[in-house]
Amino acid sequence: MIIDELGYISFDKESAKLLFTHLSLRAGRASTIVTSNSSFDRWEEVIHDLVLTAALTDRLTHRAYMIDTVGPSYRILDTKEWLENSSV
Known about the structure:
Blueprint: E1 2-3, H1 13-26, E2 33-34, H2 44-47, H3 50-61, H4 74-85
Parallel strand pairs: 1-2
Helix pairs in contact: 1-3
């Protein structure tokens, strides 16, 4: 399962619980990829429950590979290249 842009939109309490339950059931059984522009310490602002956020990040990071990327947006770079090569 791939969760793209976790943290872009806030969760209500019920949605956060459903996500936690789903990810808990997958833990240790299936691969999960999560992308986010927010660091873990900001996820509580999206999930709105400190304990649930801690439990969720604990499950996601257990035996996980984490890749932290820093740099300019690939979409902006692609758009600049596209504009340079277009006939506009």
